[in-house]
Amino acid sequence: MHGHQMILMVNSANAPDRIDKPARMDESSPEPPFHETYKTLFNNLTDTTQKNFPQFPVMEEVELPLVDLNQLNLGDSERESCKKQIARASQEWGFFQVINHGISREILENMRREQVKLFKKPFQDKTNGKDLNFSAGSYRWGAPTATCLGQLSWSEAFHVSLSDILGSGGLNNLCSTMEQYATTVSELAQKLADILAEKIGQKSIFFKETCLSSTCYLRMNRYPPCPMSSQMFGIMPHTDSDFLTVLHQDHIGGLQLVKDGKWIAVKPNPEALVINIGDLMQAWSNNIYKSVEHRVVANELKERFSTAYFLCPSYDTVIQSCIQPSVYRRFSFGEYRKQVQEDVKSFGYKVGLPRFLVPSH
């Protein structure tokens, strides 16, 4: 949901043998060539299965805390109750879901329809950006730095800066739909960030000044059916690197998060959007709000779609705790992103906030 750390397209000397143009691959197929590209990892399946997959027990599906945002339009007590629910869920879960969020069913359905059409394009067209107006490198799949199956994400995604789509004049249905979706979801994200700031006694103008349309992202995800779903991540465990993520997911399920030291499965709610706290919000709030590890597990039979909106600042924005004494040292978002990329390249996974703790004396 990374968060930018998810499926980072970086090269590594430790990466498995790559086959850029797999033999016998159907040029018109939309499917990424997972088996051909990661054949070395699949050949080692017996050796890696036991030691590289998490030992957390998975509980039954549970409902995330549900917040009805219509309460914000009612009297003072209802409005205050709603804000408290948002803050409490962000502290205790790092995740919650919202209904009556102001994004119409029509916008959500249009977005999903255009997204499905996009992913049905031939793999080669997605890779080379044919007929797409996105920046180079927007299309990502797998995990080029994976050295074992536990680091491989069985998914593909378009990670698109809003500056690629806002004000594009609706070049096509996809761009105009994304622009409409991003505009409405951006307003929701800012509203929620403002509430979280207010509930810890801070002014909210910080998010309006630093999280601009040119610095935020949409990420359209597709998780193809996976023949070895019981042993494969759709997206490997991670935290998101932003302030706040707004997720629109389908009914298939697969999202899981850590709660009280255990992995739990999130029950999909077709009427709700899922909100989660990112690393920057945890650092800014001095650990009051929690950026929680989450993952998506693969499904053997069904493909899954989701769209994530990331509320991000510019790279030069300095993050410092708004409450003292500070748990984390000051750092810029650009510095944070660079450290995440270096860690993924070196270790195959993101280290994140522990890198930026103030040294204990």
TrEMBL record:
UniProt keyword Metal-binding, yes or no: yes
Ranges of compositional bias, category Basic and acidic residues: 17-33
Region annotation Disordered: where it falls in the sequence: 12-33
InterPro entries associated with the record: DIOX_N, IPNS-like_FE2OG_OXY, IPNS-like_sf, Iron_ascorbate_oxido_reductase, Oxoglu/Fe-dep_dioxygenase_dom
EC class: oxidoreductase
Listed Gene3D superfamilies: B-lactam Antibiotic, Isopenicillin N Synthase, Chain
GO molecular function, one term: gibberellin 2-beta-dioxygenase activity
Domain Fe2OG dioxygenase: 214-313
Swiss-Prot/TrEMBL keywords: Dioxygenase, Iron, Metal-binding, Oxidoreductase
EC number: 1.14.11.13
Catalytic reactions of this protein: gibberellin A1 + 2-oxoglutarate + O2 = gibberellin A8 + succinate + CO2
UniProt record, GO biological process: coumarin biosynthetic process; gibberellin metabolic process; response to molecule of fungal origin
Similarity-based family: Belongs to the iron/ascorbate-dependent oxidoreductase family. GA2OX subfamily.
Official protein name in the record: gibberellin 2beta-dioxygenase
Origin species: Olea europaea subsp. europaea
